[in-house]
Amino acid sequence: MQKNRLEAFSDGVIAIIITIMVLELKVPHGADWADLQGLLPAFLSYALSFIYIGIYWNNHHHMLHMVRHVNGVILWANTHLLFWISLMPFATAWMGENHFAVVPTVVYGVALFMPALAYFLLQTAIIREQGPQSILKKAVGSDLKGKISPVLYLAAILLAFRCPWLADVIYVLVAFMWLIPDRRIERILGES
Amino acid sequence: MQKNRLEAFSDGVIAIIITIMVLELKVPHGADWADLQGLLPAFLSYALSFIYIGIYWNNHHHMLHMVRHVNGVILWANTHLLFWISLMPFATAWMGENHFAVVPTVVYGVALFMPALAYFLLQTAIIREQGPQSILKKAVGSDLKGKISPVLYLAAILLAFRCPWLADVIYVLVAFMWLIPDRRIERILGES
Amino acid sequence: MQKNRLEAFSDGVIAIIITIMVLELKVPHGADWADLQGLLPAFLSYALSFIYIGIYWNNHHHMLHMVRHVNGVILWANTHLLFWISLMPFATAWMGENHFAVVPTVVYGVALFMPALAYFLLQTAIIREQGPQSILKKAVGSDLKGKISPVLYLAAILLAFRCPWLADVIYVLVAFMWLIPDRRIERILGES
Amino acid sequence: MQKNRLEAFSDGVIAIIITIMVLELKVPHGADWADLQGLLPAFLSYALSFIYIGIYWNNHHHMLHMVRHVNGVILWANTHLLFWISLMPFATAWMGENHFAVVPTVVYGVALFMPALAYFLLQTAIIREQGPQSILKKAVGSDLKGKISPVLYLAAILLAFRCPWLADVIYVLVAFMWLIPDRRIERILGES
Which pLDDT score, from 0 to 100, does residue A137 have? Predict the structure, then answer.
């Protein structure tokens, strides 16, 4: 298995997922501002997921960059990750069309949690393949963001049953946590 | 014909097929757990096909890796394979939406059988092009999994008329047979 | 402009077109053989267009292989070709859903004629860029198939007004003419 | 971050956007010329957006060609650009289906303005990364077309409230301004 073909396939799948998501932004039948306004929740949901998938593409790229040899476990851990990312357009559309209602907001949280878990499994598979001298292990370090994110998703999922908008705020905050360049966030998190 | 462009095109088509399949997971209008529950068969059908297409991508990659020269027969055998894989989203959605009813389960079996046949034809075309010293022929060996799979699909298709859920179990088992690393399964199959 | 990026972009667009076409094979609501049977015209239309787009991908690849330098005219002639190919899913679905009725069959013919014309323009742009020693010009030769195809499409379009099924037969025959390896068809055509 | 993977991902996303746009050209239920005629505005809207996205792909390619090092700002400025381009299929379909009505024409203008702005931000991020010796800065020069386009989009947006067809004419003219090879347009613009 050549690494570059795994990269190309993953890039292709992620590029398609990030793009077909827009097909769920259904074109309204009317031609007034009110018709557009009704799409605002769907648009916000779309924008948030676009950022998340962009983050996954970026992080995934960096991680694969450090892979030397692709074995069967890495291959299927990667396919497993792509599977969960592929469900984001569904969760995004459901949450957006239902104006951030309780159940869709919970499901969106699950749709964020599962790729995070799958990403962690892929990372573990690569580190295990690389052995004790793993450069990925060194690069990942304490992996504060990687460990905090799933916890925050779980917290948001539980919160969503009571107060969905607060869960949505957490989803947004986690996304921004990943957007901020690493050193600053690690310093902030490292201090606490 | 450069091999790497054939690879890139095939990867692209397979990446798109595996991804657009999710568009058939129609976003429900309601926002309750019951609405989500109604999608369970479609989700299971989706997950199974995702695994199958992942297997095809992986095997196809390994096979093309051994190709030295692409002739017209290989080119069209490959396009023929992509054609049948491209019909999997349709069969997947039809089976899922109809909760694994008889006819859609039969058709799903056909949708598994045809790419298996096309894959075999592509493999044969490559081996013929490589001549008596074919490295692909050596690598394929007795090709137990490749020969058993279409037989199992046919058995499942026949079973489906009487008992569709048993056919679905066979579809799942064949997928898992391909997921298990080669040596173990070959040892198991070789012993019998 | 690097040639390989033009190739990659064109391959991507063609791979997407050939694949999203299957989304027009609408999953029927019922679960009986009759529901599937109703899709037969759409399936045949899909299969024919799949072959055509496969032919375009193949020929386009061979042609670009001979390009040394990409100028603005080549770039836009290529985009123009992709535009017309991108309309094939529409024409395919319309003809299939309407069971090869007169107007959709005429429009399908136009949807075959326009890419053929665009392909010829791209070929001309490349030959002009290469100058009197053009290797593409030598390779194309008398270009019998390239010249006969648009004439046959036009004939089929005119025929379709009277007898659409005969036009469909011509569309199929032209596709098979391209599938048959070059030398044989050129010998046949060259003799007449 | 390797530049070629940023290119490949961007190319993939742009190729998908330009292609899935055709899915909004809804296949009519009837099979008459009148059914096709009703699609004319949607077709024109599609053709215009196809040209625009083709221009973006071309310019984006040239710009990335001059990038040596990809930093985090460039990466996210690029994702930001892709986000706005991804909304063009929506705006295209809305304008086409509503026959160039006022509000959709305004929104289409916004859908042209935002990528232009995002493109400018990406360009600025690359120039800043390259420092005072920036080759991109030299290549961009006075960037007349880049500066005039957003102004024309804004003018068209304002005009659209009164006279949408005039706004559409401006959208078409700006597209053609980009299609005309650089030297001629720069000479024309430079003289005034």
Answer: 82
| pLDDT confidence of residue D131 | 86
Split at pLDDT 50, 70, 90, the class of C156 is: very high
The distance of B113 to chain C (nearest Cα, Å) reads 18
Sign of the dihedral through C-alpha C142, C145, C149, C151: positive
Q: Is A22 in Cβ contact with D90 (below 8 Å)?
A: yes
Rounded Cα distance between D81 and D53, Å, is: 12
* Chain B neighbors (3+ CB pairs < 8 Å): A, C
The mean pLDDT value for C104-122 works out to 97
Kindly determine whether residue D27 and residue C94, on different chains, have CB atoms separated by under 8 Å: yes
Best to test chain C binding among D25, D27, D32 (most C CBs inside 10 Å): D27
Looking at chain C, how many residues does it have?
192
A47 — pLDDT class (breaks 50, 70, 90): very high
A175 at D interface, C-beta within 8 A:
no
pTM of the model: 0.92
Collect all residues with Cβ–Cβ distance below 8 Å to A39 and sequence separation of at least 6: A25, A26, A28
Here the tokens at position B61 are 């990659």
Tell me if D11 and C12 make a contact (CB, 8 A cut-off): yes
C105/D17 Cα distance (integer angstroms)? 28
**Whole-Å CA distances, D141 to A184, C108, C129, D58, D135:** 35, 46, 28, 18, 10
Q: What is the DSSP secondary-structure string of B160-188? A: HTT-HHHHHHHHHHHHHHHHS-HHHHHHH
Helices (runs of H) and strands (runs of E) counted in chain A: 10, 0
Q: Which amino acid is at A53?
A: I
Supply the pLDDT for residue C116: 96
Judge whether D86 is closer than 8 Å to chain A, CB to CB: yes
User: Is A109 in CB contact (< 8 Å) with chain B?
Assistant: no
Cα of A82 to nearest chain B Cα, Å: 9
- Please check whether residue C20 touches D, CB under 8 A: yes
User: Are A150 and A119 within 8 A, CB to CB?
Assistant: no
Residue in A13, A89, A93 closest to B18 by CB: A13
pLDDT at C188 over 70: no
Chain D within 8 Å of C50 (Cβ-Cβ)? no
Q: Which residue has the tokens 């690598």?
A: B139
User: How confident is the model over A26-39, as a mean pLDDT?
Assistant: 93
Pairwise CA distance, residues D64 & D70, whole Å: 10
Averaged pLDDT in 10-residue chunks for chain D of 192 residues = 82 94 92 94 97 93 84 91 97 96 97 97 92 81 84 97 96 91 57 58
Q: Which helix (H) or strand (E) holds B70?
A: none
| Spatial distance between the Cα atoms of C145 and D5, rounded to a whole number of angstroms | 39
- Closest-CA distance, C108 to chain D, in angstroms, reads 12
Residues in chain D: 192
The Cα C118–Cα B123 span in angstroms is 35
Smallest Cβ distance to D9: which of A15, A27, A51? A15
Those residues with Cβ within 8 angstroms of residue C135's Cβ, 6 or more apart along the chain or in another chain? C66
Cβ of B94 within 8 Å of Cβ of C28? The answer is yes
Question: Which residue in B14, B20, B22 has the most chain A C-beta atoms within 10 A of its own C-beta, making it the best mutation to test that interface?
Answer: B22
- Among candidates A84, A103, A86, A73, which has minimal Cα distance to A6? A73
What is the distance in angstroms between the Cα of C173 and the nearest Cα belonging to chain D? 24
State which residue of chain B sits closest to A104, comparing Cα positions. Answer: B31
ipTM for the complex?
A: 0.90
